[in-house]
Amino acid sequence: MREAPLPRNQELMAAMTDYSLGNYVREILHVMMERVVVAQPNDPLEFLIQVVKTDQRIAELDDASRFSRMDLRTVATKTKHLRAIFQEIQGKDGTTNLSRDSIVDRLLASKLLHKSFPRHAQEIVQAFGNKETAPAIVSSSGFVTTCLAVLSKPSP
Predict the structure, then answer these.
(1) Looking at the record's lineage, which domain of life comes first (predicted)?
(2) Lowest mean pLDDT among 5-9, 10-14, 25-29
(3) How many helices (H) and strands (E) does the chain have?
């Protein structure tokens, strides 16, 4: 007896589409298929591995994709958004310092974080969730500094 197919997760499908468009997946697959059709190798899998490692067009697409994942706004603009996010997660209680665990929980629920930094939101949460590197108590300036360090790298 066949099981009913699982319903499609539209949010996941939209995220996957955005990722593929932003990272030149279609173009990379086109280069790979073109090379396989032209060369017709005996071992296509090994051939494709070598194509990905050595093809200049794929390297150029990878560089373009990394550049598009960088947040190119000025530090002042990023800082303004990060201070607004800290105020949002601070809530009405106005506590100046927040614990690492409460920051992680509040960041996960923050709509402003996902609106302001959609490509880096998960990495920002992970930066505060890492018990080895994140401080136990975080001030506004510490929050901004940690987030700016995350934003200085390309999103995955």
Answers:
(1) Eukaryota
(2) 5-9
(3) 9, 2
